[in-house]
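FIELD: query
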Amino acid sequence: MRGGRTLVPATRREPGSATRRWVPDGPFDLGLILGPLRRGPADPAFRVTPDGSVWRASRTPAGPGTLRLAVRGGAIEAEAWGPGAEWLLDGLPSLLGGDDDPSAFTPRHRLVHETHRRTPGLRLTRTGLVLESLVPTVLEQKVTSDEAYRAWRLLLRRHGEPAPGPLDRLHVMPDARGWAMIPSWEWHRAGVDDKRAATIVRAARVAPRLEEAAGMELPAALARLRLVPGIGPWTAAETLQRSNGAPDAITVGDLHVPKIVGYALTGECGADDDRMLELLAPYADQPPGQRHRACRLILLAGHTPPRRAPRFAPRNISEL
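FIELD: result
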């Protein structure tokens, strides 16, 4: 298997839990790989404990499950709880970048080359769960990160369920029916406007069809998600970066990313989507396309343009 080998299959360790030990076939950085899955420092579905373990709560096709990951001697030791435990352990290599092929990537810019050299453990995660990535991405549409993280936190704590396993205050998100049944005043209470709430409800009602996108090639997967009104290119790309580990799912329509890419690669300020795509064109020709990977490396470099305007202020939706 590209990306690693399994030393021990999923085995029962104690009642209610299962374990698996997995060794990647090259450098890996747990924080870089799983970082995009964390929706803010207080994400109810993601926790890093003082011993360095990473905990995730997921709604899998088999039901809710909790996964704990720890690095031990160059290997990943995983333990899982709940009805979704075996599903999570079966998908462990994919989650940690085992389906990703970093060797297909060739840096074409000095800054990208340097960041690539400094982050050999970067792999692209593949969760295989579309709705899990889609809902928080919709919540992030046209609002500040703090607003989106607050909404995700409140909705999971109020409408999700306690995650299986021993860790307190970890929550599994609602299932598709649960999202569709959230009343309007609860969205409002979480600071979510009608447009974003309606998009999530529409997506939840066709969730089985959207989940099929996890097994599709990128163009077909993008097209499938965009059939839902309210899901545009930005939302579709941000979702598939996580659910599919798609190395060419480039984010367009973002307020900041084009400006950062333009400034980092050329020193120019004010780049738009067209200019960003022009600069990243050399990575589109690297099979199967590597523009998202290149963009991640650029963002990790931390070369941001000087701020010329005040921060975007959070909105009070009751005043709209």
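FIELD: remark
The first strand starts at residue 5 and ends at 14.
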